[in-house]
Each structure stands twice: as C-alpha cells, then as structure tokens.
Amino acid sequence: MEVAIMCFRPPIAARPIKCPKCGAINPVVAKVCSKCQTPLEEKKVDEGAKKG
To answer: Is the pLDDT of residue 15 over 50?
Structure first.
C-alpha cells in the first residue's frame, strides 16, 4: 500500500506590510499603520505580467 504525502500551502504566502512612512511592521490585514495611522496600500497584481 502506497501512502502519498501531500503538503497544502497557500500559493502565495502573505507577508507583513511595512509602513512606508515610519517603517513599522503591520499584519497583512491591516488597512492603516498600527503606529502612525498612515493608510497602507494593498499590493496589486500586474495583469500584464500574468498573461505573459
């Protein structure tokens, strides 16, 4: 009997967001910096890069 070992990982690992103003590290889900309240931008995927 063969046993298959599978690893389930998200395709893209979410990384903490660094505030562009003060440099504080914020959780991925943060909309504003926890230290200075600067709005954090969401990283957008370039559609042109996806299509190749």
So the answer is: yes
